[in-house]
Each structure stands twice: as structure tokens, then as C-alpha cells.
Amino acid sequence: MSEAPASTAEPSSSAEQPRASVAAPAAKPANLPLSKRPIDILFLVIFSAFIITCIISDSVEGLGLDQVKDSPNLLVQWNYWYASNFDPLYQSHPVWLRFISGTSAFVYVAFYVLLIISIVRKWNWIQLPSVIYATMIIALTGIPIFGVEFFGSAAERTPNPGMFLAFNLPYIVFPLLLLIRMRKPLPFTRAF
After folding, report:
1. Closest by alpha carbon to 116, among 99, 100, 101, 133?
2. Torsion of CA 49, 52, 56, 62, to 10 degrees
3. pLDDT tens per residue, the chain (192 residues)?
């Protein structure tokens, strides 16, 4: 005799069907306290300083104020000292530089305030705005300004590259570090 084929019929009720194992959703990682994020403490200090320097320096250039030695405006006097010693491009204030400086003084400054609050409050949504800011400042500020300062006409080149870099390199280095820090979502769930 031959054997009867095995039944291929489905179970008749859903109670009889084996349940598919459903994986529980992964728990969202917890944000680390500020004390466990030393790079963020450094960012708090640096970007707070950037707020001050943007007001002192970039607002003068962005507003197109003439940088003259005998100005009654203290900010203009400080900018005159810097530009006359280290940065003739800044003193000549071409229109394109006024736009870059104005963006720094009136847009980036708002971002710095928001970044500082976000770091303290652990607002992970600041990741994308940080990437946008860092990309903008490196590409739209660093490349043209550093390019002219080192490779532009003799009248626009810095006479003192070391001092120029001491004043200006942090505005490229720290945004680059911020870009690396914010490379992935949920930045405050990791130390770096």
C-alpha cells in the first residue's frame, strides 16, 4: 500500500496559527549628560566666543563702516587695528566680503545662540542645522577669504600670514570639528 500524502491544509483558525515573532522596537539611546561630552563643553566655550567676535568684527564689516583710526566707534577702532596690521582685504571691504561678514554677524550669530542652547538641552535636531552651517562657513567663507588672503592681489594679501591664521583659522577648524561631531543623527547620545 502507498502512504497518503501529508496534509497541506492551513489551520482553520487564527488561534491555531503560530504567531510571527515581532521584535520590540529598539529603545532610543539616551542622551549623555554634558559632563560625558567634553567636546561639547569645548564647543560651548568656542561658539560663545564666536558670538562676541561676530559682534565686534563682522558687524562692522557687514554694515560697511569705514575702518579708520580716529573713529569715535570703539568697534571700528579695534577693527582698524586688526585690518591695518594683518588684513588689508578686510580694510578695503569689497561688497562680496560685506555680504559674507553680514551673514556671519546677523545669521551665524543666531545659529551660535541656538547651538549653545541645543548643546545644553541636548536637542538632537540641531544636527542637520549644524551640518548646513559648517558646510556654509567652510565653503562660502573659508575658501574665498583664505584664497584671497594668500593668493589674491598684493594689495589684498595678508602681510602677516601667521597672525592672520591665529585670528581666522578657528573659524574654519571649529566648524569642521562640529561637522565631524554632527556626522550622524542623535549626536548627544555619544561622546563624539
Report:
1. 133
2. 100
3. 555 555 555 555 555 555 555 666 678 899 999 999 999 999 999 999 999 999 999 999 999 898 889 999 999 999 999 999 999 999 888 999 999 999 999 999 999 999 999 999 999 999 999 999 999 999 988 999 999 999 999 999 999 999 999 999 999 999 999 999 999 999 999 999
Rounded Cα gap, residues 44 and 70, in angstroms: 35
Vertex 55: Cα angle to 116 and 108 (nearest 5): 50
In this structure, are residues 156 and 32 in contact, taking their beta carbons and an 8 Å threshold? Answer: no
Contacts for 123 with CB less than 8 Å, ≥ 6 apart: 117, 188
Residue 5 has, within 13 A of its CA and on its CB side, a CA count of: 3
